Amino acid sequence: MSMTPETPLPPKGKGIELRPIPMLIFGSRWLQLPLYVGLIVAQGVYVVLFLKELWHLFAHSFDFSEQQIMLAVLGLIDVVMISNLLVMVIVGGYETFVSRLNLQGHPDEPEWLSHVNASVLKIKLAMAIIGISSIHLLRTFIEAGGLASGKTGYTETGVMWQTIIHTIFILSAIGIAFVDRLSNIASEEAKHSASH
């Protein structure tokens, strides 16, 4: 019985040498880097907007009615939630599609980043969009009290469509979560059958 030498595996931590075309295709992921840097710039713009809105609220704190203060605070919450969405896209997207951040053991590592993948990121983004839509809808409902008097920029049709779109967001998120659950069950069954 002749013994054939096994092909040695590359040492741990060393990369596998790719042919030119696969290397080009794999390296093309770095084209996304300017997009994530652009989102960081957009986050900076949202910080400026937040400070501007906060100053506006502070300057008019004695002039505004309770409803106006509530609407201003909801505007601040809206900016924060959009900023959270940006962080999820920047950090999660970079980690999933570009390169590892190597944050294991870092005290500030986000809890959700340890198990992030494309499916988890999709569900988290859907939930963040629903949260943002909820804030917009709440602001609309607060201002919709003036529909009869005509003191608001909203119409009944506009409020109805905003509610319908928010409901579609919720149904879409439920659909994404359901499909993701089905794919997880299918992959678990495949692993289980392969082990037997």
Automatic annotation (TrEMBL):
Keyword set, alphabetical order: Cell membrane, Membrane, Transmembrane, Transmembrane helix
Transmembrane segments: 33-51, 71-94, 159-179
Pfam families, alphabetized: UPF0114
Membrane topology: Multi-pass membrane protein
Cellular compartments annotated: Cell membrane
GO cellular component, one term: plasma membrane
Claim: Aminoacyl-tRNA synthetase is one of the keywords in the record: no
Similarity-based family: Belongs to the UPF0114 family.
Alphabetized NCBIfam families for the sequence: HI0507
PANTHER family the record matches: UPF0114 PROTEIN YQHA (PTHR38596)
Protein name per the record: UPF0114 protein KMZ68_06795
Phylogenetic classification of the source organism: Bacteria, Pseudomonadati, Pseudomonadota, Alphaproteobacteria, Hyphomicrobiales
